[in-house]
Automatic annotation (TrEMBL):
Residue ranges of domain ABC3 transporter permease C-terminal in the record: 183-300
Subunit and partners: Forms a membrane-associated complex with FtsE.
Protein name: Cell division protein FtsX
The protein's role, per its UniProt record: Part of the ABC transporter FtsEX involved in cellular division.
Cell compartment(s), UniProt: Cell membrane
Ranges for domain FtsX extracellular: 56-161
Organism, as annotated: Streptomyces mooreae
């Protein structure tokens, strides 16, 4: 196989179908950019879950004197010290509970409340005696919350067992929904890119049907004839994948590092290692996907 001839044929094909080649590059770039972004978003959700689930607690709130009429567990009024001691002892015996179990008094709860809502109009409405005492329980496995809930939610003196994961779960559900939407759009763009690749290869093969016919008549193999077309598609796909990598790197630098990380400091964002792990996969798909599409499209259109 003469490399000079193959390269010249690639150049001819790219020049003849410049507009369609550009459309292929853009389509591949957008579809693979969304593909890479969906992988990074999945990593981001996993990183955030690991970060926040490690910090959230299960709170066991005790009845106070204002809760006598609010529920069955609090029908006898505020929780007694014996009830608190029994629950504390049982928590200390559970293997899923990280020690120590933290006790928060009404005054401490009020202090934390003032720190969080001190500048809001409702801050002056709440008094310390309205805030319940509680145990803050950290679990070795946060998914075992149901064990604590079932064991203590019906105990006398317990007003409520609350999992703080409920406050962050809607955010994770939103991010997962966005990830699914990105994957759907990526799949549609991928179909468009494949259709453009196939049409570009067919047009290129049709415009050079005389040359390919002569090559077949003089004994050229099918692979030798197909190679320029396959490489044209592979080069266009690789250029699109490279542009997708630029979009991912630029998005990480501009959107995450220089904007979100400064605006939302409580979130642990993904690092460059996650981006570096995605880029080779994007380049590999950008190279192989158009080449395979061109190979199967040419099986029919290069028969003479």
């Amino acid at each position: 196989m003469r490399a000079q001839f193959v390269l010249s044929e690639i150049g001819v094909g790219l020049r003849r179908n410049l507009t369609m080649t550009f459309a292929v590059i853009v389509s591949v770039a957008l579809s693979l950019g969304l593909f890479g972004a969906s992988l990074l978003m999945r990593d981001q959700v996993s990183t955030m879950k690991g970060y926040w689930y490690d910090k959230v607690n299960v709170s066991i709130f005790f009845c106070n004197k204002n809760d006598a009429d609010t529920g069955t567990n609090c029908a006898k009024g505020a929780a007694t010290q014996q009830q608190k001691n029994d629950i504390k002892a049982e928590l200390d015996r559970l293997p899923i509970v990280q020690k120590p179990v933290v006790y928060e008094s009404s005054d401490q709860a009020y202090k934390h409340y003032k720190e969080q809502f001190g500048d809001t109009p409702v801050a002056g409405v709440v008094t310390p005696d309205q805030l319940p005492e509680s145990f803050r329980v950290k679990l070795k496995d946060p998914t075992k919350y149901a064990v604590i809930k079932s064991a203590f939610s019906e105990r006398p003196g317990v007003q409520e067992v609350q999992d703080q994961r409920d406050t962050v779960e809607p955010l994770f559900n939103l991010l997962n929904g966005m990830n699914i939407a990105a994957i759907v759009v990526m799949a549609l763009m991928l179909v468009v890119a494949l259709m453009l690749i196939v049409n570009t290869v067919r047009v290129s093969a049709f415009s050079r049907r005389r040359e390919t016919g002569i090559m077949r008549l003089v004994g050229a193999s099918s692979f030798y004839i197909q190679m320029p077309f396959i490489l044209e598609a592979a080069i266009a796909g690789l250029l699109g994948a490279a542009f997708a990598c630029v979009l991912l790197v630029g998005g990480k630098y501009a959107l995450i590092n220089n904007w979100l990380a400064k605006k939302i400091q409580v979130v642990n964002f993904i690092g460059w290692d996650s981006v570096a792990a995605v880029l080779p996969l994007v380049l590999l798909i950008g190279l192989l996907m158009p080449a395979l599409a061109a190979f199967f499209a040419l099986r029919k259109y290069l028969k003479v």
